Amino acid sequence: MRIATWNVNSVRQRLEHLLAYLKEAEPDVLCLQEIKCVDEAFPRLEIESAGYNVATHGQKTFNGVAILSKQPAEITRGLPGGDGDEQARYIEAVVPFGNTIARIASIYLPNGNPPTTDKYAYKLGWMDRLAAHARELLKLEECFVLAGDYNVIPDPRDARDIGAWAGDALYLPQTREKFRALLNLGLTDALRAATDEAGLYTFWDYQAGAWQKNNGIRIDHLLLSPQAADRLQSAAIDKHMRALEKPSDHVPIRIDLA
């Protein structure tokens, strides 16, 4: 099974790139973030014509997540523990996987900037909710993947210029501590299970020639349950998608599970 995740930064603006990627990479499941549209405005017909089932959890103008799957899926929308939270940041699918199932979530974790505002408290609280949910999922002893834009730079290796991010919500000690706590539950960072190489990025800002200078960061991650980690064959970042005309500022990252 090939599982990919991609913050498309507006699905309608990036539809041509999305359809090309589905044809090129042929993921069995593609998790999308920042679709930036309500469910009714998602280009469902075009995606279904490409051979995918579509599940969305949209929001007008901001946020929004989706899961595209070759097989029909059982869908749950929203991260538990968020009564009154109207931000569309989490969708979960259960899909057939051989003679068993795989549970896959598309996550758009809050950015949290500026860190002196309530936005950072919301980010940390959201991470606590995610950890609580992951803890419950682990009890099921299933193959599951928590994929998406985490807005977390885990390590100095994951930025070209880590000093520039010292005071940013993506790299503050509290942020990294909560990300490590998530991993310490028993989850595996798929890319780091495949390689220790530095300079592997998934995001390049539109400003200041970041792409041309390769001034990137790694903030898009696939975290695997032990049952999924045992099946991990490979992990790859599809960096070439950032070189397209009018690209997303993120690129897809994908894994293959045996």
Give helix and strand order, one letter per element, not per position: EHEHEEEEEHEHEHEHEE
Give the count of helical stretches. 6
Residue-averaged pLDDT: 97
Could you please say which CATH topology applies here? Deoxyribonuclease I, Chain A
Q: Between the first and last Cα atoms, what is the distance in angstroms?
A: 7 Å
For this structure, the quaternary state is single chain
Strand order of the largest sheet: 3-4-2-1-12-11
Describe this structure in a few short sentences.
The protein is an alpha+beta fold.
Task: Tell me what you see in this structure.
There is one protein chain. This protein is an alpha+beta fold and 258 residues long. It has one domain (2-257): Endonuclease/exonuclease/phosphatase (Deoxyribonuclease I, Chain A, 4-Layer Sandwich), CATH 3.60.10. The protein has six helices and twelve strands. It has helices spanning 15-25, 44-49, 118-139, 173-184, 190-194, 226-229; strands at residues 2-7, 29-33, 53-57, 65-69, 74-77, 90-97, 100-108, 143-149, 188-189, 220-224, 232-237, 253-257. The strands form two sheets. A six-stranded mixed β-sheet has the order 3-4-2-1-12-11. Strands 5-6-7-8-10-9 form a six-stranded mixed β-sheet. Strand 3 (53-57) and strand 4 form a beta hairpin. Helix 3 packs parallel to helix 4 (173-184). The radius of gyration is 17 Å and the shape is globular. The N and C termini lie close together (7 Å).
